[in-house]
Design brief:
The structure holds two protein chains of two kinds.
Chain A: H1 12-34, H2 68-104, H3 106-120, H4 125-135, H5 139-149, H6 152-166, H7 169-176, H8 181-218, H9 229-239, H10 245-272
Chain B: H1 2-27, H2 42-51, H3 58-70, H4 85-120, H5 125-139, H6 142-156, H7 171-200, H8 203-210, H9 215-253, H10 258-268, H11 271-299, H12 301-308
Helix pairs in contact in B: 1-11, 4-5, 4-7, 4-9, 4-10, 4-11, 5-7, 6-7, 6-9, 7-9, 8-9, 9-10, 9-11, 10-11, 11-12
The chains are: A mainly alpha, B mainly alpha.
Chain lengths: 277, 309
């Protein structure tokens, strides 16, 4: 805790956000064990009861008497997991695509980036919806679908970096020494991309979480009885007249996570890549 | 003119890729639109498959789909009986376009002045407050804003209807348009602010001020035109964002737009409906992007020459 002030110099928001994220993650892992309820337990005696009421339902219950504290934390877990895994998928595709395009240059680069441009100009959520039709709607296929479409910006970021690396002396030296292309990519290009990729990945996670909750809100994402912030908010939105807490609880968690990740990403960018400011 | 033609021709391969990709994605799905109900008798299912051309090979289906598409025919809906995709889109599209156009106009029409205001008041109270609100506007997505607005303005204050749609009434439009516009508005405003600030730091602005031009004239004549170029470039993605948001807004407010059919179609595996809608959305966005590009070329000759090379 002593060194924490040095983590993000001049970025108190990033520090606070990091602590907040850690707290939320800890709560999401440990919280459900504190409550006597499980995420799919039905408490018939207390249906749609307000937060702080009896029966140890700290955030109240939903229409079926399920505990909202546990369900929200379960949802945080699912949403975070899908966000992280989808980012990982988009990272794999985007970095590979961008690094190859940037390193190859010439016609290959032009063609590869042209494909990215084509998809970039489309509202890609529609393609995620197409993919959910194809792959089905379980959490494990969901993050593949989201990640498979969300790699475009990553590819662009990586290509620009890789292209500038291509003209550096140490790459020319490696080529002159006869190092095979794949080895140059893996040993010399990729490590130098790590900073930019890390920054951009942090900024991607909230976007992925938003898409997941967007799909779940529409009923195209995580399915009942499993909880995600999106489907909790969808139920909350349907009940908000009588029970506003059903919307406000998951909603505040989502906003907190998305905002905090954004601040941490900004902080990381200043730290690792001061040029982009 | 040659530039415009080149751009239009350049769209064709894009369109072909989109249609092909969407077609393949939808068709490789395991299970068909008639699988979910109680198991059908084999001969009935065979009849259904034949009626919708599902018994043909994938290649034949693809050719058939293109033949229809070139005649402007998106085929019959597979789940909504007795309706063609064209009919469904014809009922939904006007609603979606109305809400979308108003939201888009609001986002740009209010976003640019707000960004300008924040830039001219940089680091003062108005700027700080505005920027904080806008940061929230970007982080909080439409599916959160929409229910919250309903909670406040429809349920607590009773100013506006909760949901619903009657053609020709403006009251129904207010909340959907606001919740759809908000994230894009925030983005446009932030972008305007950043780019105005950049231009304000340029030497020729100092010259304009030094020769005694009134501040408003400097802003309107010298700052805005170059500062708006990046904002113009963002209009394409902004339109895409508004279309995406319309899915949620239509669901929350129960508007009979296209978004509802898309969501239903995806849930029901209504191949033709989903495919047709994605194509229509893509064409909408592409033609809008094209219009923006042409406009950019018109305003800034550098764009024309760079792109042609």
């Amino acid at each position: 805790m002593i060194g924490i002030r040095r983590w993000f110099p001049g970025h108190p928001a990033a520090r606070t956000s990091l602590c907040l994220l850690a707290a939320i993650a800890l709560l999401a892992v440990a919280g459900p064990k504190l409550s006597p309820w499980r995420f799919d337990d039905l408490d018939w005696a207390r249906i749609a009861s307000a937060p702080g009421g009896e029966g140890q339902h700290w955030f109240g219950t939903d229409r079926l008497g399920r505990d909202l504290f546990v369900r929200t934390l379960e949802g945080v877990r699912v949403s975070l997991a899908i966000g992280l895994l989808a980012t990982l998928v988009s990272l794999l595709i985007g970095v590979t695509w961008g690094a190859i395009a940037g390193f190859a240059g010439g016609r290959v680069e032009a063609l590869m980036m042209r494909i990215v441009d084509v998809f970039y100009s489309l509202p890609y959520v529609f393609f995620v919806i197409l993919l959910t039709v194809t792959l089905g709607r379980t959490p494990s296929t969901l993050f593949v679908a989201i990640g498979a479409v969300g790699w475009l910006t990553m590819a662009r970021v990586v290509r620009i970096q890789a292209e500038s690396l291509r003209h550096r002396e140490f790459i020319a030296a490696a080529i002159a020494l006869g190092v095979p292309t794949w080895r140059i990519l893996v040993r010399h290009i990729l490590p130098n991309l790590a900073g930019a990729v890390l920054v951009y990945a942090t900024l991607t996670v909230p976007g992925m979480i938003l898409i997941e909750s967007f799909l779940s809100f529409l009923g195209l994402g995580v399915q009942e009885p499993a909880a995600s912030l999106g489907n909790l908010m969808a139920q909350g939105a349907a009940e908000m007249e009588a029970a506003p807490w059903m919307l406000l609880v998951p909603c505040s968690f989502l906003v907190a996570i998305v905002l905090a990740l954004g601040f941490v990403g900004d902080g990381l960018r200043d730290l690792l890549d001061p040029r982009e400011r | 003119m040659r530039y415009a033609l080149a751009r239009i021709v350049g769209l064709l391969p894009t369109l072909i890729i989109i249609v092909t990709l969407a077609f393949v994605l939808v068709r490789v799905a395991p299970g068909g639109p008639f699988d979910q109900e109680q198991t059908l008798a084999p001969d009935i299912k065979a009849n259904l498959d034949r009626a919708y051309g599902l018994d043909l090979s994938l290649g034949q289906q693809y050719v058939r789909y293109w033949r229809g598409l070139l005649h402007g025919d998106l085929g019959p809906s597979m789940r909504i009986r007795d309706f063609t995709v064209n009919q469904l889109i014809a009922t939904g599209l006007p609603v979606s376009l109305t809400v979308g156009a108003f939201a888009f106009a609001l986002a740009v029409g209010l976003g640019v002045p707000l960004g300008l205001l924040a830039a001219t008041r940089k680091d003062r109270l108005a700027d700080r407050v505005l920027m904080a609100v806008l940061a929230l506007g970007i982080a909080v997505p439409a599916y959160v804003v929409a229910p919250l607005l309903v909670l406040v303005f429809a349920i607590s204050l009773h100013w506006l209807p909760v949901a619903g749609w009657e053609p020709g009434t403006t009251r129904d439009l207010v909340l959907p348009v606001i919740s759809l516009a908000l994230p894009t508005l925030a983005y446009v405003a932030r972008m305007t602010r950043a780019s105005v600030l950049e231009v304000l730091g340029l030497p020729y602005i100092r010259t304009a001020r030094a020769k005694g031009l009134p501040p408003v004239a400097v802003l309107v004549r010298h700052v805005l035109p170059p500062a708006l170029a990046p904002v113009l470039g963002y209009l394409g993605p902004a339109a895409a964002a508004v279309l995406t948001g319309s899915l949620v807004v239509e669901t929350v407010f129960g508007l009979p737009g296209m978004g509802r059919f898309l969501v239903q179609g995806a849930l029901n595996r209504d191949y033709t409906l989903v495919l047709g809608q994605v194509i229509v959305y893509a064409v909408l966005v592409l033609s809008f992007n094209l219009a923006v590009d042409l406009l950019q070329g018109l305003l800034d000759p550098r764009v024309r020459h760079d792109r042609r090379a």
